[in-house]
Amino acid sequence: MGSVARGDIALPRRFMTAPLFAIRPTTADDVPAMASIEALAFSDPWPATSFHELLAHPFSRMATAVDDSGGIIGYCIMLQAADEAEIANIATAPGIRRRGVGARLLDDAIAAGTEAGVASMFLEVRESNAAARALYSSRGFVAVGRRRGYYRRPLEDALVLRRDVTAFE
């Protein structure tokens, strides 16, 4: 990995390409951009109506990553019931992947869940999605089950991952 000189220090190139962005609560105005990212990110995407419906429910927490020009570059949806939460959906725009946006969205959801008293977080991930599995593993998620044939287009098993929040306190 190369580096780029900045003043009198040399920074790794990965620090030069990270986008500037903020994470904020999702609004109804964000849904069209989220649905576009969803369609590009997943072979069996959620419809825009699903995002709108979740915005109205108190058990859902939706966060949006917005770049410095106001563009939507990612989102994360967490559902909470009692002391458990599920990361129901997380995605980043294709040109932004592997630059820290998904990690920050996940960290934000973990922090919000912890603050809300969540003891365990769950999510499903395609068994073949090595990049997502590595991210989840780096945040303490471990495989606890398998849902056979869970994903369509193409048909594939989902791994059920869990992160026990209390294990990190």
UniProtKB/TrEMBL annotation:
Record keywords: Acyltransferase, Ribonucleoprotein, Ribosomal protein, Transferase
GO cellular component: ribosome
Domain N-acetyltransferase: 21-166
Pfam families: Acetyltransf_1
Top-level taxon of the source organism: Bacteria
Entries under InterPro entries matching the protein: AcTrfase_RimI/Ard1, Acyl_CoA_acyltransferase, Bact_Acetyltransf, GNAT_dom
GO molecular function, one term: N-acetyltransferase activity
PROSITE patterns listed in its UniProt record: GNAT (PS51186)
Name the UniProt record assigns to this protein: Ribosomal protein S18-alanine N-acetyltransferase
Organism: Gemmatimonas groenlandica
GN (gene name): rimI
